Amino acid sequence: MNQPALLSNKVLFGYGLSAMPVMYGYVLVLIMYMKYAVDDLGASPAVVGTIFLAAKFWDAVSDPLIGNLSDRTRRASGRRKPWIRAAAPMLAVFGIMAWAPPESLQGYQLSLWIGVAVIGFYTAYTMFDVPHMALGAEITLLPNERNRVFGVRQLMRIAGMLVAGTLGTYLVSQGTAYATAMAYALGLLTLVLIFTGVSLLPPERAAFQGRGGANPYRAIRDVLVNPHARLLLMIVFIDAIGVGGIGVLLPFLVEYVLLMGDILPLFMAINMFAGLAMVPGWIWLAGHFDKRKLIFWSFIGCGVGYGLVLLIGEGDWHLMAISSLLAGGSSSCANVLGYSLKSEIIDSDEYHTGERKEGAYFAGWSFMNKLGAGIMVAMVGFALEWSDFQPNVAEQTELVKQTIVLLMGGLPLVCFLLGAAAFTRFSLTAEEYTRIRAELDVRASEAA
Whole-angstrom Cα distance, residue 260 to residue 273? Predict the structure, then answer.
């Protein structure tokens, strides 16, 4: 395999660092943008929901396209790094467009501006995220080291999410002037941290150049016919439907159901700190137990954690804190061990096809996740409009409150339980993967 047993801390830090500002921007759009666009910019919730849904349908094109193009890229710097660097200025520009539109825009002009900004931002996010995930699967081929790679990535992502959920939500809640200043500062940080992080990474594997698959349609077919990948595609979509509206709904739940809007950053912090604390815990557990069993039980934990929202009423901050703690700690498993498991599925594809299509595979899973989330964001927008939600009115009707609670508590509970049941059918065992990895190492040695 021609690699050290352990990756250096510099490499791990560099890989995770570039993800931090991207996750900040992504989470803040997911959590606060609908409320900001409706309450502060004056857009219709149904229009904003439709824009988010349209962005997800565009992902049906951009995700597999970018994934396959990055698999086939031939540059001196590698297959993935050029895409990651190119995404940085686009993330900055479209982020500024979203949070700082000209004050003169109203009506359809504002809607058009928001549409370009949101779809552009999600396109740039795909240009970064898919090659970045693929690069993580290529940095090392050792299962335990992959747990560390994606564990550090998740630590940095959670750090970005934590700052977004506390400082970011506070700044956006203060109005357009603060949001505008934040957008420009974030744009600069995005450029600096992405380019710095990439500079700390080792050269990409020359042996993987030219092995990404020449035909994008065949690459998609290979993903779909792989039984392990196909099952995860379904599970990712189910779970994304469940949690896709959580970020959007949380500000509405805290302000209009709990009637405690000022403590939104507290619940964000609890959720993120729980996820942060459990990253090394999941890595340690994976060294003693089969990651497949751990992932199954994390699904159960997520479902129960979000399901507690069904019991929440006015002033029930303590129950909301328990929900945030349990859901946050459980959800970090899929973002650490789940990516390691996906890397093993990609290795199994190489075993059968001889190709390295990390981009195509991670694009497929990313698309299903974003499609499910996009559907839920659109559903939230239409549900709020249907229930006669009134912006900036403290006393909402019982129908509005019940709609928020059911979408944020009941739906995730059902979806995660369904996902856990489906995951029991996952058939790529640890023993089978060990055999596949050994055969791939033999092939690599013979080729060398």
Answer: 21
